């Protein structure tokens, strides 16, 4: 029992540390955005550090993910053949994700739900530094977030291939995903959590994180078009 508690504690600490690494990297973009108008030189320095950090995190996350799959992988996650049938399924999941967002936006437009509190901050950042914020949101965030909330999360805490592990894994990973997008518990948290649940089900269905990254990429790309 003591060995199990120690192992789980180490996994929790590891997950938090990996999350902090990602948050520090995104904070570098936020700092660059703040200085974009007042001090372009300073903004460029933060962007340089951000790009170097992105490369380092990508190598670290890829290595850790592959290592954990080699050590403990009862769900048989890994690279699966990319087939026409799987691509059709991915497109259908993207349509479902769009429908969730359309329904949510309609509820906001009809004043049945509040406007997301983080939306104003996101739009302000994009206006100040549009290219880099859009690039980060579309290309970088999907990769890191899928490694964190699907890749590492399931193998750290819900690796057993049974119904209860699957149910709680999807539920908890979605809630954490939702909370970290709002940094407060609100109705909007459920919106982001629903997207997180869909992404978790995608990971469990395809058993290949590349499909998750692609779906997340398409969703974020759609949001800026």
Automatic annotation (TrEMBL):
Residues 129-221 form the CAAX prenyl protease 2/Lysostaphin resistance protein A-like domain. The chain crosses the membrane at residues 12-31, 46-66, 87-109, 135-157, 164-181, 187-206. Signal peptide: none annotated. One of its GO terms (molecular function) is endopeptidase activity. Keywords: Hydrolase, Membrane, Protease, Transmembrane, Transmembrane helix. It comes from the Bacteria. GO terms for biological process: CAAX-box protein maturation; proteolysis. Belongs to the UPF0177 family. This is Metal-dependent membrane protease.
């Amino acid at each position: 029992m003591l060995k199990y508690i120690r192992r789980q504690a180490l996994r929790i600490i590891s997950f938090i540390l990996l999350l902090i690494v990602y948050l520090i990297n995104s904070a570098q973009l936020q700092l660059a955005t703040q200085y974009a108008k007042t001090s372009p030189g300073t903004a460029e320095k933060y962007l340089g550090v951000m790009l170097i950090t992105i490369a380092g995190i990508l190598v670290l996350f890829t290595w850790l993910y592959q290592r954990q799959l080699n050590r403990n992988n009862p769900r048989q996650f890994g690279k699966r053949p990319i087939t026409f049938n799987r691509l059709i399924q991915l497109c259908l999941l993207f349509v479902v994700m769009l429908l969730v967002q359309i329904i949510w936006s309609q509820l906001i437009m009809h004043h049945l739900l509040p406007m997301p509190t983080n939306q104003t901050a996101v739009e302000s950042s994009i206006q100040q530094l549009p290219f880099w914020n859009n690039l980060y949101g579309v290309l970088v965030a999907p990769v890191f977030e899928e490694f964190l909330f699907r890749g590492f999360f399931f193998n750290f805490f819900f690796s057993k291939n049974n119904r209860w592990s699957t149910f709680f894994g999807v539920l908890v990973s979605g809630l954490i995903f939702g909370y970290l997008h709002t940094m407060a518990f609100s109705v909007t948290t459920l919106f982001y959590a629903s997207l997180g649940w869909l992404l978790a089900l995608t990971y469990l269905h395809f058993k290949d994180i590349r499909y998750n990254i692609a779906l997340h990429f398409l969703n974020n790309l759609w949001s800026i078009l």
